[in-house]
Amino acid sequence: MREISVADKGAGPYGITAGPDGALWLTFAHSGRIARLTLDGEVREYPLDSPSCRPTVITPGPDGALWFTRSQDHRIGRVTTDGDAESFPVPTPDSGPFGITAGPDGALWFTEMNTDSIGRITGKGEITEYALPVAGAYPSAITTGPDGALWFTLNQANSIGRITVHGDITLHPLPTPGAAPVGITSDSAAVWFVEIAAGQIGRISMTGEITEFPLPDRTAKPHAIVAARTGDCWFTEWGANRVGRITASGEIAEYDLLSPSSEPHGITLGPDGALWAALETGGIARVAP
To answer: What whole-number distance in Å separates Cα of residue 30 and Cα of residue 37?
Structure first.
């Protein structure tokens, strides 16, 4: 494990993803910037048009650009690998977009935390919104599942949601009350998610069967999760300053980060086969399995 300093604490590295250019791309939530990090540690920052827009989750799009949510000014952002940025307003005011992922239909799909909706945006910026059948659900992270549908966490409705590319929605309540799911990922066989309030990792099959795996430290506050391969997922423990790994059988291993209280958030599989985690205090952790 090693750590790379990419910004001061005021910038707030939050989301991270592997770009199509062989580099890592980050959101700086507090300073309103997008950053590019090469594997040898070179950092380049790209300021957005609003320092207070709060860029959060970032993902590669089918067009070769990076797409991200702006949760404070309620827009969806796009930045090319050359650093040219633009953004598109979400039609519903004060929507609070957060999670975002590339869908199987050539569009990007995102969650709207404040308005109980899932959004779809095309490469040209055309947005369609789908209302969820529940109020106060706080939809958070979203991923494309092995079945070609979009799967998402409902943090306050304590459920995992599924939406087809045609807008058909199904909700799956979690067995543990008040689990507060956040991060979600697909390993090509099932969908995995974290329960930040319950200190558990969950798995849901394509038929809706849910299995929960308690962490050794139930107060660890797992936040984000990514699949390295089928049956091999890695996650951040925001409350315990660790990253963890879980296998298909539920075996869990945890690893302390080098800097104390570094506030790990987003995590991604890098082009080098290592795991890279964004640390809100200003660094990036690289973990070689």
So the answer is: 18
- Average pLDDT in the chain: 97
What single DSSP character describes residue 246?
Answer: E
Region 91-109: what's the mean pLDDT?
98
- Residue 289 predicted with pLDDT over 90: no
Tens digits of residue pLDDT in 218-267: 999 999 999 999 999 999 999 999 999 999 999 999 999 999 999 999 99
Backbone angles phi, psi at 46, to 5 degrees: -125, 110
Q: What are phi and psi of 260, to 5 degrees?
A: -70, 145
The values of phi and psi at residue 208, to 5°, are 90, 10
Q: Which residues contact 275 (CB under 8 A, 6 or more apart)?
A: 226, 228, 234, 243, 267, 268, 269, 286, 287, 288, 289
Q: How far apart are CA 27 and CA 19, in angstroms?
A: 13
Q: Which helix (H) or strand (E) holds 85?
A: strand 85-89
Catalytic residue at 265?
yes
Catalytic residue among 30, 74, 223, 265: 265
